[in-house]
Design brief:
2 domains; 6-stranded parallel sheet; 11 helices; globular; FXL22 protein; LRR_dom_sf; F-box_LRR-repeat; ubl conjugation pathway; F-box-like_dom_sf
Length: 226
């Protein structure tokens, strides 16, 4: 029996075991398998592990998407979570190459995936409060929002949760150093049903500013002279 003789449900089940690239390659072999690839039911879960993956034409966005994860752990991508004044020219150039990649992708998610239930973002240094605000406004069924090591996330995201996160049940802002204890307390007060976690966030020691570094350097020089 040829693979194309299988019924539609069997083909969908077969595709479900393949990663995005394998699905795309299989879909290129014949028209019927391309139609299976384009079935929205196949795309209820998406995981991405690098900026390059978001730019590949090997997946579909649509109302069937329920769970989305964008987790970048490579050393190069971690650079984007460093304060701009601490980056060298090479690091700045690298960040500029994909500074809008996640934001633009999440905008598409807002427009095409209203039934999203869970979103996990880790190491996405360019994601802003506005991105999360738009998601909360458009994905009204969102129940789980997990943010880890996203340097631009602040109390504005926490405020957006209190205003637009009616369906939210789980909120994590781990290693998001720019959220504050006051912001977390507002979430606890206004959304008591939300399970909130903020490991190494509000109480993290902020990065030293250049002026402070200069003052410390001058003070150390004086001590050496003495």
């Amino acid at each position: 029996m040829h693979i194309t003789q299988l019924n539609w449900e069997c083909l969908l089940h077969l595709f479900s075991f393949l990663d995005k690239n394998s699905r795309k390659n299989l879909a290129k072999t014949c028209h019927k398998l391309l139609e299976v690839f384009q079935d929205p039911l196949l795309w209820s879960l998406l995981n991405f592990h690098s900026p390059v993956e978001l730019k590949r034409n090997n997946f579909l966005l649509g109302p069937a998407l329920k769970h989305l994860s964008i987790c970048w752990y490579s050393e190069r991508v971690k650079v984007c979570n460093i304060e701009d004044w601490m980056k060298n020219s090479f690091q700045k150039d690298f960040c500029k190459q994909h500074e809008n990649t996640v934001s633009d992708f999440l905008l598409d998610v807002c427009n095409r995936c209203p039934n999203l239930l869970s979103l996990t973002l880790s190491g996405c240094g360019h994601v802003t409060d506005d991105c999360i605000l738009q998601l909360l406004k458009n994905c009204l069924n969102l129940k789980s929002l997990k943010l880890e090591n996203c340097v631009q996330i602040t109390d504005h995201t926490l405020e957006a949760v209190t205003l637009h996160g009616a369906s939210l049940r789980v909120l994590q802002v781990d290693f998001c150093r720019n959220v504050t204890q006051a912001g977390l307390e507002r979430v606890r007060e206004k959304c008591p049903s939300v399970i909130l976690r903020a490991e190494r966030s509000a109480n993290m020691i902020p990065d030293s500013k250049p002026e402070k570094n200069l003052m410390l350097e001058k003070a150390s020089r004086k001590l050496v002279q003495l």
